[in-house]
Amino acid sequence: MARDERPKGGIRADARRNRAAIVRVTIETLRRNPEASIPEIAAAAGVGRMTLYGHFPTRAELLEAALADALERGERTLGRLDLVGDPRDVLVQLIDTSWVLVDESRALLAAAQKQLPPARIRELHEQAEARVRELLTWGQGEGAFRADLPVDWLVSVTHLVIHGAADEVAAGRLTPDDASRVIRETLLGAFTRRDTGDS
Amino acid sequence: MARDERPKGGIRADARRNRAAIVRVTIETLRRNPEASIPEIAAAAGVGRMTLYGHFPTRAELLEAALADALERGERTLGRLDLVGDPRDVLVQLIDTSWVLVDESRALLAAAQKQLPPARIRELHEQAEARVRELLTWGQGEGAFRADLPVDWLVSVTHLVIHGAADEVAAGRLTPDDASRVIRETLLGAFTRRDTGDS
Questions:
Q1: Sign of the alpha-carbon dihedral angle for B148, B150, B156, B162
Q2: In chain B, what percentage of residues exceed pLDDT 90?
Q3: How far apart are CA A157 and CA B162, in angstroms?
Q4: In 3-state terms, what secondary structure has residue A45?
Q5: Residues 130-149 of B with CB under 8 A from A
Q6: Closest CA to A132 of A170, A162, A177, A169
Q7: B186 and A188: CB-CB below 8 Å?
């Protein structure tokens, strides 16, 4: 039976558990070894290679499912951020939450970027991006973030800086311990209007 | 005779002119059509396809030569920036110069990124990066740029923000006319210490 014809409710419980286990270990396995093979990922999930291929016929499909899963978990965490109080404090919370997730899933994202088209990667990020846009729009309205830069641009800069920090950590040019502070200071600096031209 | 054994002085003048013409039109041709084929690039340079293949046996070699050429031109322009006066003004000059070049060569860089390993792309950027690092280190020493962020990070952010703006322009989310201002405001904001915590 072709994969697309199989109704979701028809997957037996153990198959669902296997699928979830495979998706979850993929991120961790790639983190330890970005070149991890499909048999290695299957072994880490405690399933046979054929079981893995039954769920994910290609490496691209596995990476896409793992990335979607990581982003959903992020979305659940970001969804708990309340847009109340000082927008700068909420931005700091968002940065700290996102950084942990991006740092954990850096190897997965790098692997996915090699296999999936950029438009698909962007699509997967859409919900998280909407959450960031909502926060930044609110902060601009509150006068906490500069409104002379388009909100789309602030969203892009947030993404670039957090992912850029992950790349710098991977390259050994930034320590993981320092990354969160560096991201925070960079974004708050960029998004907060300077009150004096000179100082 | 193998390519590497051929002494540079032995290339005849017209072959040298052909090579230079091919390299120069590559950037412009890709800008009009990022998918431009080798025969189209040869036609734009006014040479035959076999002449082009004689200089650049693969698409990757052509893209590498064109990217190296664009970066050398950038380096010559950046090399004229004097590190005197207010570091913020020199940063603005550097941004304006770099932006024109990055915007012109966006399609070339995207094509090169598909064909060349990231380490090679980074290597080609090394001289331009050294110039940016020199300016930012000087500005930190002068107290114009915040010194609580590592200079390597400031270099990365400069690169990310300029290239990110080029991607946003390509995606239609930022107008080319607004890009230079947006880059400038973002980087000056990020690199300039906020004097007051709240305002």
A1: positive
A2: 61
A3: 10
A4: helix
A5: 146, 148-149
A6: A162
A7: no
For the stretch A126-183, pLDDT in tens is 888 899 999 999 999 999 999 999 999 999 999 999 999 998 998 899 998 899 999 9
Residues B90, B92, B93, B95: is their CA dihedral positive or negative?
Answer: positive
User: What is the residue extent of each domain of chain A?
Assistant: 1-57, 66-199
Cα separation, A64 vs A57, whole angstroms:
12
- The answer to whether residue B157 neighbours chain A at the CB level (below 8 Å) is yes
Kindly identify which residue of chain B lies nearest to residue A196, measuring between CA atoms.
B195
Q: Do B152 and A161 touch (CB under 8 A)?
A: no
Separation between Cα atoms, residue A47 and residue A26, nearest integer Å: 12
d(CA B53, CA A110): 33
Placement of tokens 């107008």 in the chain:
B175
Token pair 């290339």 is found at: B11
- Sorted by sequence, the CB contacts under 8 Å of residue A57 that are 6+ apart come out as A3
**Residue whose token pair is 């930190």:** B140
Closest alpha carbon to B132 in B154, B105, B149, B147: B154
Sign of CA dihedral A66, A71, A72, A76: positive
Q: Which of A173, A187, A196 sits opposite B152 (nearest CB)?
A: A173
Q: How far apart are CA A163 and CA B115, in angstroms?
A: 22
Q: How far is B178 from chain A (nearest CA, A)?
A: 10
The first and second tokens of residue B183, run together, are 């880059």
The ipTM, to two decimals, is 0.80
**CATH (residue range A1-57):** 1.10.10
Alpha-carbon distance B59 to B64, whole Å? 9
- Fold for B63-199, please state it: Tetracycline Repressor; domain 2 (1.10.357)
Q: Which fold is adopted by the domain A66-199?
A: Tetracycline Repressor; domain 2 (1.10.357)
The answer to whether B56 and B41 have CB atoms below 8 angstroms apart is no
